[in-house]
Amino acid sequence: MNILLTFDYELYFGSPSGSAEKCILSPTGELMQIAEKHDARFSFFVDCGYLVKLREYMNEYPTLDNDYRKIIAQLRQLSASGHDLQLHIHPHWEDSSYNGKEWVFNTGRYKLSDFPAESIDRIVALYRKTLEEISGRQVFVNRAGGWCIQPFMETGRAMKDNGVWLDSTVFKGGYFFSGNYYYDFRNAPQDACWRFSDDPLKPSENGFFTELPITPLNVSPWFYWKLFLLGRINPRLHKPIGDGNPMPAPGYRKKLLTSFTVQPLSLDGYNARLLNRGLSETKNKKSTNHMVVIGHPKALSRFSLRALDKFIDKHKQEHRFITYSAWAEKYTGSFS
Ligand SMILES: [Zn+2]
What is the CA(124)–ligand 1 centre distance, in A? Predict the structure, then answer.
């Protein structure tokens, strides 16, 4: 089995956003140490809107200049160590600003599809170019910010123009529409991966795009009661390392605490507890030879970093921990 451990490299989008040090630099540093220890490779979906905004304000604010330099240095180091840097777009950065103390987010246009077609073209091209200049490699994978990939028509056109042909956003069965969020993956195919044209949920044999979905998992409400309780009882072990607050998602916590939900298999905080279950369920599906796990440096905890270390150690003989680049090299053309 190929296991793709993937991380959305970003700040929080609530108030406060949290610091680059705590949300990104320090936890990613720990991830690099774990990867090195086990000779594993990870994939990072880099929030390029943040990089573009840092560049816009760095001459005016030394603290942002410092953040920018450290982040670029870390991204270069990640790329040089064989980790993947791929595209993660949170277009609300376009409408956001820095007030001298903190980021002020306007999340009214949270999805790429909230923007007119010309803006989508410009954003995708600029963010792709920004990332390629840092990594020195071609960017070809996208993960939509906040999983908000629908509707895909205009976004798809821009992705195609920019040579981005692989998507890794969908997790079958997941859905949430509230506040600025909208995603609905209940009708996604069962397949391990599939080709598509202008709708990621509709396979089409000769489609330009390929979906390599995030592994979904059914999670009981009791799990989340435990998760929230542990955060109170032992915050040192279970609280996120990141020091910001998420963008409000009205009703989301209630949904988790009151019903079974389908979640993306995740490394964030106590969710890392479910890694082994995710792997054994994936192994039982005979048609699948890969598993995609999502995480966020900002949402990792002491607990999840330890769980990740143990998980890789336990499975590294039998399975391979690889990037999208390594996956694409091996499987492009052979799965359709
Ligand atoms: Zn994100």
Answer: 15
CA of 90 to the centre of ligand 1 (A): 6
CA dihedral over 145, 158, 215, 252, signed as positive or negative: positive
User: Residue 324 falls within a domain, yes or no?
Assistant: yes
Task: Please give the backbone phi and psi of residue 77, each rounded to the nearest 5 degrees, phi first.
Answer: -65, -40
336, part of any domain: no
Is 189 part of a structural domain of the chain? yes
Compute, in angstroms, the gap from residue 247 CA to the centroid of ligand 1. 11
Cα–Cα distance list, 198 to 152, 157, 206, 229, 243 (Å): 6, 8, 12, 42, 38
Any idea what the CATH number is for the domain that residue 130 is in?
3.20.20.370
Which residues hold their Cβ within 5 A of ligand 1, which is an ion?
A: 8, 10, 145
Six token digits for residue 85: 């840097």
Q: Is the pTM of this model over 0.85?
A: yes
| Distance of CA 318 from the midpoint of ligand 1 (Å) | 31
- Neighbour count for residue 259 (Cβ, 10 Å): 10
Q: How many CB atoms lie within 10 A of CB 34?
A: 18
State which residues form the domain around 226: 2-331
What is the identity of the amino acid at 82?
G
Structure tokens that stand for 137 in this block: 């490699």
Number of domains in the chain: 1
The pLDDT, as a whole number, for residue 336 is: 35
Lowest mean pLDDT of 38-42, 103-107, 108-112, 284-288, name the range: 284-288
CA neighbours closer than 13 Å in the CB half-sphere of residue 321: 24
> Is 249 domain-assigned?
yes
Q: Are 123 and 94 in contact (CB under 8 A)?
A: yes
Lowest mean pLDDT among 62-66, 128-132, 185-189, 329-333: 329-333
CA-to-CA distance for 301 and 46, rounded, in angstroms? 20
